[in-house]
Amino acid sequence: MPRPPCCRRVSGSPAASVFKPAGIPARELDEVVLALDEFEALRLADLEGLYQEQAAERMGVSRPTFGRILDAAHRKLADVLVHGHALRIEGGPVACAGPRACCRWHDGRETDEAPQRSGKGPGRRCRRRGSPEEDR
Q1: What would the pLDDT profile of 12-39 be if each residue is shown by its tens digit?
Q2: Minimal CA–CA distance to 91: which of 136, 32, 45, 46?
Q3: What's the start-to-end Cα distance of the chain, in Å?
Q4: The sheet that has 103-104: what strands, in order across it?
Q5: Quick one: which of 10, 17, 62, 86 could link to 29 by a disulfide (CB 3.0–4.6 Å)?
Q6: How far is CA 133 from CA 30, 81, 127, 136, in A?
Q7: 100 vs 32: CA distance, rounded Å
Q8: What is the pLDDT of residues 83-94, one digit of tens each?
Q9: Helices (H), 1-105
């Protein structure tokens, strides 16, 4: 069983969370979900032009992990563009950076508390305070 992903820092959510081809009703389209950490990786690497090491530091992950996140995001975007799917940006194991930190898990839940790190280093797993049972 693979180790659960650690929380990744993101600076915010996108201006729009759904994109689709013009002229085709959304109910007729297959949907590809881009996680918020993948969106942030695209923003840092492709829009801001940061090197992977700098971007990984901002997100609180290792450089190889950042590379894998970015690669997954590029594959999903290519699939959307080539096959004409709808793109939804949501969820993922992310913690919002800023004055009021929140932790969003795979189902999009939010808490008002900052994520608690278990252990040292960027590769460690985060747990929501007060409910470690839900994290297992």
Answers
A1: 778 888 999 999 998 899 999 999 999 9
A2: 32
A3: 12
A4: 8-10, 94-96, 103-104
A5: 86
A6: 34, 40, 9, 6
A7: 29
A8: 999 999 988 777
A9: 36-42, 52-59, 63-83
Strands in the chain per DSSP E: 8-10, 18-19, 31-34, 86-89, 94-96, 103-104, 116-117, 126-127
**What does the alpha-carbon distance between residue 37 and residue 117 come to, in Å, rounded to a whole number?**
17
User: How many H-runs (helices) and E-runs (strands) does the chain carry?
Assistant: 3, 8
Rg (CA), the chain: 16
Q: Is the pTM of this model over 0.90?
A: no
Instruction: Please answer whether residues 39 and 89 qualify as being in contact, where contact means their C-beta atoms are separated by less than 8 angstroms.
Output: yes
Residue 135 in contact with residue 128, Cβ under 8 Å? Answer: yes
Relative to beta strand 31-34, strand 86-89 is parallel
Q: Which of 75, 67, 62 is nearest to 6 (CA)?
A: 62
